[in-house]
Amino acid sequence: MPSARLSFLLPAVLALAIGVYGYYEAGTIRTEHLVIKTTKIPKDKNRFRIVQISDVHLGLIIGEERLRKIIEAIRSADPDLLVSTGDLVDGQIDGLHGLAELFGEIKAPYGKFAVPGNHEYYAGFDKAMEFIRDAGFTILKGVAVNIPRTINIAGVDDPEGMRFGLYKDIRENEILSTLDPNQFTLLLKHRPIIDKVSLGMFDLQLSGHTHNGQIFPFNLIVQIFFPNISGYFPLKGNSHLYVSRGTGTWGPPIRFLSPPEVTVIDLVREGISLFKLIFHRFI
């Protein structure tokens, strides 16, 4: 009898411990830092800083308290450019009144840009886009923009839009071909899928969607469908991919061995000394 009781209690205690830790981990946002050397930023700039958020899932579970933590992490990074790579909002967005204005606390001199994820469609696409615009983001849905003498930014739609008859069907290479190849080209795409035809036409693709499985060992399953599940991946044609683990949570507010992140990407001019880069951060 004692051994039977023990065999019941041990898994229950373990599950409780994982749940408590997972709740703590989900609320502890890490800042990940990626440095990419390039000749494609202006000579008068030593560094251009991009901050990425992804899969925040603002809604019924992720609300003001978590968003304020995210905003503070972004502000601390002092971005030149802020991007959201999809799923900023979730299925329940009626209670988000006033949260969009919090993004106004972030000063990103080169702008804020976002692409739709699959959950923007579940939330009600028009309402989701309204919230994202109110938060100060320019939505890139199958379009590209050029910030003169600085950077190109292209964004593609999420294929979930096909189910709703709202998908903007335009090939990546058609969008990218309109941009100056001598400027650094940033491609925003919710799902970490690589269009081989586009390789060499963009310098860095930023994606999310996978949550890195969110709760171990689900990452092993997710990786079957998305081999580039999280982190940095060099690609052919001098293109690069970075996949965020996500900044929020979906479903239970728990993460296990997959902490949420705000990603800081520094584009550093090729040949710059470390001393100059460090000094630039403090001026």
Overview of this protein structure:
This protein is of the alpha/beta class. The protein has one domain (2-281): Purple Acid Phosphatase, chain A, domain 2 (4-Layer Sandwich), CATH 3.60.21. The chain has helices at 2-26, 64-77, 118-122, 125-134, 172-176, 218-225, 274-281; strands spanning 30-38, 47-53, 81-84, 112-114, 138-139, 143-147, 151-155, 185-188, 204-207, 231-234, 240-243, 261-269. Mean pLDDT is 88; it is low at 277-283.
Would you spell out the secondary-structure blueprint of this structure?
Layout: H1 2-26, E1 30-38, E2 47-53, H2 64-77, E3 81-84, E4 112-114, H3 118-122, H4 125-134, E5 138-139, E6 143-147, E7 151-155, H5 172-176, E8 185-188, E9 204-207, H6 218-225, E10 231-234, E11 240-243, E12 261-269, H7 274-281
Parallel strand pairs: 1-12, 2-3, 3-4, 4-5, 7-8, 8-9, 9-11
Antiparallel strand pairs: 2-12, 6-7, 10-11
Please provide a brief summary of the model.
The chain is α/β, with parallel strands linked by helices.
Q: What is the assigned CATH homologous superfamily?
A: Metallo-dependent phosphatases
Alpha-beta content class: alpha/beta
How much strand content do the residues show? 15-25%
CATH architecture term: 4-Layer Sandwich
Following the backbone from N to C, one meets helices and strands in this order, namely HEEHEEHHEEEHEEHEEEH
Helical content class: 25-40%
Briefly note the CATH topology name.
Purple Acid Phosphatase, chain A, domain 2
How would you state the average pLDDT, rounded?
A: 88
- Reading off the top of the CATH hierarchy, the class is best stated as Alpha Beta
Supply Rg.
Answer: 20 Å
The count of domains is 1
Q: Biggest sheet, open or closed, and with what strands and sense?
A: 6 strands, mixed
Would you report the number of β strands?
A: 12
Q: How many helical stretches?
A: 7
How far apart the termini lie comes to: 69 Å
Low-confidence stretches: 277-283
Strand order of the largest sheet: 1-12-2-3-4-5
Give the overall shape.
globular
